[in-house]
Automatic annotation (TrEMBL):
Name the record gives this protein: Histidinol dehydrogenase
Cofactor binding annotation: Binds 1 zinc ion per subunit.
Metabolic or biological pathway, per its Swiss-Prot or TrEMBL entry: Amino-acid biosynthesis; L-histidine biosynthesis; L-histidine from 5-phospho-alpha-D-ribose 1-diphosphate: step 9/9
Family note: Belongs to the histidinol dehydrogenase family.
Gene3D superfamilies per the UniProt record, alphabetical: 1.20.5.1300, Nitrogenase molybdenum iron protein domain
CDD domains per UniProt: Histidinol_dh
Cofactor(s) needed: Zn(2+)
The protein's role, per its UniProt record: Catalyzes the sequential NAD-dependent oxidations of L-histidinol to L-histidinaldehyde and then to L-histidine.
Residues bound to substrate: S237, Q259, H262, H328, D361, E415, H420
Reaction catalysed by this enzyme: L-histidinol + 2 NAD(+) + H2O = L-histidine + 2 NADH + 3 H(+)
């Protein structure tokens, strides 16, 4: 794992090099995905079956074999051991409660001329949620995508995931049942995104597609954007820990592992002003890594995109954190509130040594679908607002038409648009 010092002259170029990685962009994948999208668009169900058989090594003959009924979802939930059912239910309730706070309401006001102005909020009609399933299928990702859609009042939630059967499938399907998913198709990759975007004879076209996935899914989402809405293009997981040197170093080491274990290009970084503490975390990493079941993935990820960084002080750490704009930021310090006020760019901020990022992945309540690859500079966690739309409301009174008509007349004439000007002027009182 690389060690850096923020006072070194080449520090920012080393940091920028570490951050420049983008696992979701590859010209070769972009062109393969374009071909898959075009094929699904023209051949529908038949192409979905072919790609599913090829990429997910299945032997499907009829499209109906790819849909899972509500009865099967309920049966999957019922098959889970009771402690797993309870854990899913607790997570579901907490995530729902948190997201209920995000629900936007319509508003309006009347101005001095009696003109009503406002904003009307409506849910999307039909959304598609992508739940990754190639290497591992996460039930928590089902909850994090479906619950905000449900809270927003979306009537139809269509889920796709390349499920592979077994207990893992029961967990994902059980979570889908709990979260109120309307229909599920066991398809994945670019073909699933295309089916949701364009619709097929069987799979309904949706208005927006949300959820993370691999480079094929990311490329497909990018390419269908415009035909449908998308939430974001989520890349590999990231964790940044700012520590004042007072947290048990084993806790920090394991928190770094918790995102590094997602995949070999996950990013895990520690910022700390205390050199001796950085050495202690390094020792914890060496001691604990061999015991981890996913040690090989963690080791590669830490080698590729891990860093232990000595900073001048905690203010310096905050400035560097804002440059990194991480998906997850842990403030493992005694006074996290003071530091949080200095953070402008982070998907989620975990405050204090007891707030491990992993609690946020499952059950704290906030969403775990978060901006990655520095996009926290301009985007936000997946939320209820992603499943709601806003329409402006304007109801002009006769007095309002008289006053505003004169203003619009002048502005429209200045823009060289006479029909606009006349439409405004016709409603202006002449006597
Ligand atoms: N940000 C988050 O909240 C979050 C949560 C869970 C997972 N993830 C990320 O999602 C990703 C999941 O990736 P995954 O692969 O396990 O599952 P996935 O479901 O995203 O992708 C599997 C699909 O990829 C397609 N595919 C695979 N190889 C292909 C090829 N050669 N040509 C065309 N298509 C091909 C197949 O159709 C397959 O169904 C990981 O990077 C993981 O870190 C992120
Ligand atoms: N940390 C991931 C998002 O970056 C989400 C996740 C799902 N399961 C465990 N973790
Ligand atoms: Zn995670």
């Amino acid at each position: 794992m690389r060690k850096l010092n923020s006072s070194d002259s080449n520090f920012y170029s080393s940091l920028d090099e570490l951050l420049s990685f983008d696992a979701t962009l590859s010209p070769e994948i972009e062109s393969r995905v374009a071909a898959i999208l075009a094929d699904i668009k023209s051949r529908g169900d038949a192409a979905v079956i072919e790609y599913t058989n090829r990429f997910d090594r299945r032997e499907v003959k009829e499209i109906g074999e790819l849909e899972v009924s509500q009865e099967e979802l309920k049966a999957a939930f019922d098959r889970l051991p009771s402690h797993e059912q309870q854990a899913l239910q607790t997570a579901c309730e907490r995530v729902r409660k948190y997201h209920q706070h995000q629900k936007q309401a319509s508003w309006q006001y009347t101005d001095e001329d009696g003109t009503l102005l406002g904003q009307q909020i409506t849910p999307l009609d039909r959304v598609g949620i992508y739940v990754p399933g190639g290497t591992a299928a996460y039930p928590s990702s089902v909850l994090m995508n479906a619950i905000p859609a449900h809270v927003a009042g979306v009537p139809e939630i269509i889920m796709v995931s390349p499920l592979r059967g077994g207990a893992e499938q029961d967990r994902v399907m059980g979570a889908a049942w709990l979260a109120g998913v309307t229909r599920i198709f066991t398809i994945g990759g670019a073909q699933a995104v295309a089916a949701l975007a364009f619709g097929t004879e069987t799979i309904p076209a949706v208005d927006k597609i949300t959820g993370p996935g691999n480079a094929y899914v990311a490329a497909a989402k990018r390419q269908v954007f415009g035909q449908v809405g998308i939430d974001m293009v989520a890349g590999p997981s990231e964790i940044l820990v700012i520590c004042d040197g007072k947290t048990n170093p084993d806790w920090v080491a394991i928190d770094l592992f918790s995102q590094a274990e997602h995949d070999e290009v996950a990013q895990a970084i520690l910022l700390c002003p205390d050199e001796a503490y950085i050495t202690a975390v390094e020792q914890s990493i060496e001691k604990l890594l061999p015991e981890m079941p996913r040690a090989e993935i963690i080791r590669t990820s830490l080698k590729n995109r891990g860093a232990l960084i000595k900073v001048a002080d905690l203010d310096d750490a905050c400035a560097i954190a804002n440059r990194i704009a991480p998906e997850h930021l842990e403030l493992s310090v005694e006074e996290p509130t003071l530091l949080a006020a200095k953070i402008r760019h982070a998907g989620a901020i975990f405050m204090g040594a007891f707030t491990s990022e992993s609690l946020g992945d499952y059950c704290a309540g906030p969403n775990h679908v978060l901006p990655t690859a520095r996009s926290a500079r301009f985007s936000s966690p997946l939320g209820v607002y992603d499943f709601q739309k806003r329409s402006s409301l304007i109801c002009v009174s006769p007095d309002g038409a008289h006053a505003l008509g004169q203003v619009a007349d002048i502005l429209a004439t200045g823009e060289g648009l006479p029909a606009h000007a006349l439409a405004a002027r016709l409603r202006v009182r002449t006597e």
